[in-house]
Write a structure and sequence with these properties.
There is one protein chain. This protein is mainly α. The protein has a single domain, classed as HPT domain (Four Helix Bundle (Hemerythrin (Met), subunit A)). It has 6 helices and no strands. The radius of gyration is 17 Å and the shape is elongated. This is Histidine-containing phosphotransfer protein. GO terms for molecular function: histidine phosphotransfer kinase activity; protein histidine kinase binding. Keywords: Cytokinin signaling pathway, Two-component regulatory system. Functions as a two-component phosphorelay mediators between cytokinin sensor histidine kinases and response regulators (B-type ARRs). Plays an important role in propagating cytokinin signal transduction. One of its GO terms (cellular component) is nucleus.
Length: 140
């Protein structure tokens, strides 16, 4: 059975299309091409984003928040998410950046929670997609 005919390929494509329909992914995800070959890029995104999200959370707990520093960190996460097609993560990051511009810690904390939530959903989706790709390849 070819990879294209594999029953899980159909299910994986339906899953990815549902993620697009729900706004989690955009056309940049499609431009990655072969997901199995790009698995390192997806893993690097996650390995890079999690410590940055931790830094944002810790920074927001400081008495004197460095909003410009937060904007820089969030810009990096947003850019990396956008390159991989992580639309909702990128949008949530943009919202957090806007609130950093107002120096409103409370609104920044709320926006951070949304970024964090969207990131972990995307991370889990990437994990499921890559797991399905491995399964499909192992049955060839």
């Amino acid at each position: 059975m070819s990879e294209a005919e594999h029953p899980q390929r159909h299910m994986l494509n339906k899953f990815i299309n549902a993620l697009r329909d729900q706004g989690f992914l955009d056309e940049n995800f499609s431009s990655l091409g072969n997901l199995y070959d790009n698995r390192n890029m997806l893993s690097l995104f996650c390995d890079d984003a999690e410590p940055k999200l931790d830094r944002v959370e810790k920074s927001l707990k400081n008495e004197n928040v460095d909003f410009q520093g937060l904007v820089t960190i969030i810009e990096q996460i947003k850019g990396n998410a956008a390159r991989l097609g992580g639309k909702r993560v990128a949008e949530a990051c943009a919202e957090l950046q806007r609130f950093c511009g107002t120096s409103d810690v409370e609104r920044c904390n709320e926006a951070y929670k949304k970024v964090n939530w969207e990131y972990y959903i995307l991370r889990d989706c990437f994990h499921h997609i890559l797991q399905a790709e491995r399964t499909i390849r192992s049955h060839d």
